[in-house]
């Protein structure tokens, strides 16, 4: 079976040591590499935090009788997907058919596409993949037009079995999805009439309806999820033989999803129903958006540490210039670090990689260019960093962090410089 560790490292894999070029990840790891051998800028992953987050989410879902198919588009890393699957995830969620093709090339056999498939070329590919009896695949539809486009394309192909589809329920002002329950029922009825499709449940995404934890935001999310369960109850009689899904849940409101799903009546279902979360960002958490909104952030959750997520990704950049008092320029910018959900947050500094990290306070990244970040502090204060020193940055939004890197080093813990793995991405 093909694995990312079998692929050669090349000069296109930014940040890797020069001596690693032309080796595989396995060969590099055999040299016991240290973080100080890597080039800046970089994003470093913390293995101990990843392990904790994956185990925490898996145990929490098991306790509540929930399935999880974590959203793989967060990392697009088969190595990290495997860790989630090994911890009990039922499959991987993806967002595009291109991502599905990547997953299939790494033998992922259980996939939810949180989207519709209406491109004839993608459907042709899907029809061929469905010849694999081990493949579990389900996608979404949100309109009669979507159903009709899929049906027309699939009828012209030799489809070995019907494509499982969930009816997506949306909300006014939200993203995709039928805007009313009645409209969604009409879609479900059209699916039942399509010989190349099988109605497999209901789906949706609550995260587009709110972006914080105010009373009104939580109410909007809960109300939407209750409507989703109502839709499931109203189309139960349309389900045919096979698995049924009721699915929602990003990484911000999965606790509310669990509460609403716990009240759903599944006792009369003729077919097995999987109440399924699709959270993805929890695997690395962050120091920004999800830190502020996740129910499991270490600063929000009461109780034992076991029920808190830990930040598992850190940016590292080097000071390359101090052109004026109170300003330092770092060698990492928008091409290296996420910025769409908040600028990086200076957390620690060291004289160099491999040296002792010290807290960095009273400084902020105020602006970013393509390849620079502007680190500022009070002009009355002494410079907290020097040219050539390194700064560790808290990052916000994993989904736009991973896509900037082909290879990310993994250390055994944030306090250690021992590189124990390299995670490869496939965006």
From TrEMBL:
Lyase is among the record's keywords:
yes
Protein name as catalogued: D-serine dehydratase-like domain-containing protein
- InterPro entries attached to this UniProt entry: Ala_racemase_N, D-amino_acid_metab_enzyme, D-ser_dehydrat-like_dom, D-ser_dehydrat-like_sf, PLP-binding_barrel
UniProt GO MF annotations = lyase activity
Q: Which domain of life is it from?
A: Bacteria
Q: Show the Pfam families listed in the entry.
A: Ala_racemase_N (PF01168), D-ser_dehydrat (PF14031)
Record's keyword terms, sorted? Lyase
> What are the D-serine dehydratase-like domain coordinates in residue numbering?
312-412
Q: Is NAD one of the keywords UniProt gives this record?
A: no
Write the lineage as a comma-separated list: Bacteria, Bacillati, Actinomycetota, Actinomycetes, Micrococcales
Protein family membership: Belongs to the DSD1 family.
């Amino acid at each position: 079976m093909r694995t990312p560790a079998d692929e050669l490292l090349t000069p296109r894999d930014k940040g890797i040591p020069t001596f690693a070029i032309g080796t595989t990840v396995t060969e590099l790891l055999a040299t016991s590499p240290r973080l100080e051998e890597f080039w800046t800028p970089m994003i470093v992953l913390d293995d101990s935090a990843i392990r904790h987050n994956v185990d925490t989410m898996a145990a929490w879902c098991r306790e509540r009788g929930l399935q999880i198919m974590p959203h793989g588009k967060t990392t697009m890393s088969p190595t990290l997907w495997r860790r989630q699957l090994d911890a009990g995830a039922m499959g991987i969620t993806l967002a595009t058919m291109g991502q599905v093709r990547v997953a299939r090339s790494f033998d992922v056999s259980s996939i939810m596409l949180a989207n519709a498939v209406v491109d004839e070329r993608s459907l042709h590919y899907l029809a061929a993949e469905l010849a694999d009896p081990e493949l579990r695949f389900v996608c979404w539809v949100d309109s009669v037009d979507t159903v009709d486009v899929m049906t027309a394309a699939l009828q012209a192909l030799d489809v070995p079995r019907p494509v499982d589809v969930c009816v997506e329920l949306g909300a006014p002002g939200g993203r995709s999805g039928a805007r009313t329950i009645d409209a969604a029922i009409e879609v479900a009825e059209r699916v039942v009439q399509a010989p190349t499709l099988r109605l497999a449940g209901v789906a949706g995404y609550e995260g587009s309806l709110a972006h914080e934890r105010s009373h009104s935001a939580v109410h909007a999310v809960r109300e939407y999820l209750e409507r989703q369960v109502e839709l499931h109850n109203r189309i139960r009689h349309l389900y045919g033989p096979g698995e049924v899904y009721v699915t929602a849940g990003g990484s911000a409101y999965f606790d509310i999803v669990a509460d609403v799903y716990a009240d759903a009546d599944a006792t009369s279902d003729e077919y097995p129903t999987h109440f399924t979360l699709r959270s993805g960002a929890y695997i690395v958490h962050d120091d920004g958006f999800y830190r502020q909104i996740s129910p499991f952030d270490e600063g929000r959750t009461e109780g034992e540490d076991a029920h808190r997520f830990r930040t598992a990704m850190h940016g590292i950049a080097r000071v390359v210039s101090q052109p004026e008092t109170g300003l330092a320029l770092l060698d990492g910018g928008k091409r290296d670090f996420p910025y769409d959900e908040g600028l990086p947050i200076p957390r620690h500094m060291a004289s160099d990689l491999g040296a002792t990290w010290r807290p960095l306070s009273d400084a902020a990244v105020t602006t970013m260019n393509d390849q620079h970040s502007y680190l500022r502090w009070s002009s009355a204060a002494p410079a907290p960093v020097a040219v050539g020193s390194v700064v560790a940055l808290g990052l916000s939004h994993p989904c736009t962090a991973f896509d900037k890197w082909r290879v990310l080093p993994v250390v055994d813990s944030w306090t250690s410089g021992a590189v124990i793995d390299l995670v490869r991405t496939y965006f």
